[in-house]
Amino acid sequence: MSNMVGEADGKTFMITVDAVIMVDDRVVLIKRANEPYKGSWVLPGGKVGVGETMEEAVRREVMEETGIGVRVLGLVGVYDAIDRDPRGRSISLCYRCEADGLKAQKTSEAEEVRLFDPSRVQDLGFDHSQMLKDALAI
Question: pTM value?
């Protein structure tokens, strides 16, 4: 299943989703198991498949990376800085989500999954610090 969208000049870019998941006033973060940003804390997320909506993609990506199911509450924003992902051009839709609890599991993409006090979170990989800040302002 392709997740690349063609531009007029023949180049491609990725459409991705990210999730700010709140559990009892704490945010779910994963420690990346792979490059880029291996070992860094980030929001769960990933590429959107051609046959799925953005909300379906965010629920799937969260389940794949954390093992937890979420309810999507709404869109935080669209993040499209040209250099936001070192792997190439990527446009991300970030969603605010909630879960009933953290029964997370380590996966091939996440070395660790933990809850954090969002006021203490700093220096997330990619542009996820801005996404978290924006979600908390809603």
Answer: 0.90
> What is the token pair recorded at 87?
């792997």
Percent of the chain with pLDDT over 70: 91
Domain containing residue 26: 4-136
Does residue 118 have a cis peptide bond before it, meaning omega lies within 30 degrees of 0? no
d(CA 43, CA 20): 6
pLDDT at 42 over 70: yes
Instruction: Count Cα atoms within 13 angstroms, Cβ side, for 127.
Output: 21
Which residues are marked as active site?
112
Can you read off the two tokens belonging to residue 71?
């309810």
Domain containing 89 — which CATH number?
3.90.79.10
